[in-house]
Predict the structure.
Amino acid sequence: MHMFAILARLAWRNLWRNHRRTFIMLAAIVLGSWAMIFMTALMRGMVTEVIKDGISALPGHVQVHHPKYRDDPSVANLIPIPDSEMSAKFAAAGLKGWASRVRVPAVITSEYDSRGVTLLGIDPERERGLTFIDYDEIDGRFLESVDDPGIVIGRKLARTLETEIGKRIVIMSQDPDNEIADRGFRVVGLFTANVTAFEEAFVFAGKSTTQKMLRIGDRTSELFAVGDDYRNVDAVYSQVTELVDAGVEVKSWFELDAYLGTMLKVMDGFLLVWVIVIFLALSFGLVNTLVMAVFERVREIGLMLALGMKPRNILGQIIIESLMLLTIGLVIGTALAWLAVQPIKEGIDVSIVAEGMDMWGMSSVLYPELLLRDVILANVVVLVLGFFASLSPAWRAAHYEPVEAITKV
Amino acid sequence: MTAVRCVDLCKTYHQGEEKIKALDHVTIDIVEGGFVCLSAPSGGGKTTLLNTIGGLDKPDSGEVYIAGRRIDNLRKGELAELRLRNIGFVFQAFNLIPVLTARENVEFVMQVQGVAAAERGEQALEILQEVGLAGLEDRLPADMSGGQQQRVAVARAIVSHPALVLADEPTANLDSKTADGLMELFCELNERHKTTFIIATHDKRVMSYAKRLIRMLDGRIVDDIEQNAT
């Protein structure tokens, strides 16, 4: 401990011998760690939004389907258990949120145009807050019950079909007997989605109304449940699995959408690479600073060795000096990154490039997400790599011959 | 008992094509409590002999013993430990660690030795007072004169009472009054603690304090005389 105390004292004072050089190096570390953490927060926020939007479009953390539904999501592959029976079980299970819905491909036709869409027959009360639809942001009104006769479509689809609230459209699909099942609906509301592609892809009708149109009785296409955290769905997955029998398929969101599932892992890997790349840029400056510092102090290093300090203590002194420099830079950089995130926590409007981002399923508002584990990762990686980067100059200093070092001019 | 024993030491430096014999079959014994001056013109081998005795330099051949222990074959770490525990050094120049105050410089060796803070603080103040630097304890080397710096270095060399003090031209940067004061301090320590002093110098006044004077020339001992110190 006494040795660490003197090494730390020497390292600290030596750090401030050349103020200008230390401040320049500190500025580089602060800038690097700020960029590392701030950009990580932006990227993490972007990916989280993509995942959340993706999950809200699925929707839910866990879904139940007919085993063949994912290959053929048509009315032919409905859940073989009556909806009333399933709903009773799920209602009694105390899940955080769940709903069942009819989900079939359909064609929507206005008097001007027609488009292929996914028709969702939903229970509006049960789905409130569980999907990407914000009921309060609807133009007109949202569905009021399972047997609501109206339909809610996306704003973008309404523009494409040249229709509006109050006008009628026709939805056409197939019933289980492969007969055309169609129905006229009056447009009662237009929804907006973070991902504008959703505005063209989905239309919402009452669950009972849809069941009647498709002539499927008390049957649904899917049942979904949500847990507390999309990153950890094990608990809700086990709960749902216990509620259903072997005749259906239970899948978590990352199995249902492999692209979304791999995004989380890719993001973690990408962050590590990003932190390492920034560090590599910093390391040149760091090593150069330490080499210069060692070169300037050859004689006093020789003196300390002559007085009986062991080479490993000299090695420790240089490494402590490097870690002190990095720690100060990281603390300031992290604090600045945190401060930079605060004013934009409520979101940055990137609608100017939203059309392009939409292709990737990203919303037009970015919400930076500063996770403690990302901050810890960035700081630990820099400190660990900094330790290794400082080994070379420290090793050189520790292996001076005292008699040569002390007489160095 | 013998404090230092050198047996047939040889050391040659190469400067380009030229070979310089710094030590040429040097054999000496120095008893405990000895006060020895090594005198030689520049390049005569006195600093090399001092460094070899202190474990800072290795001979090409020959043997060095400190308090009966052979040291010329020790590893770096072992030599460092030996210097830390047994030998005090005073170099001609650049004696102090610039970022430490006078007191911290004096405490440095004791701190590396692991002496408790209170004890080393007390000893450092005491020894600084003894070398006439009371009141300057918290000054950095840059804020002290050459003589004051040299006295701090002497204080550091003797504060932990090493058995052997090696001093290379300790008075080179000092005025005559300060140099006399320093030599008197060495003599007093030699008398009081039986510390062995080996001083490399070409200053005649310093030589006059020695009990034994060894003259060197071209790496060889040419004269070795006992004398009555002043």
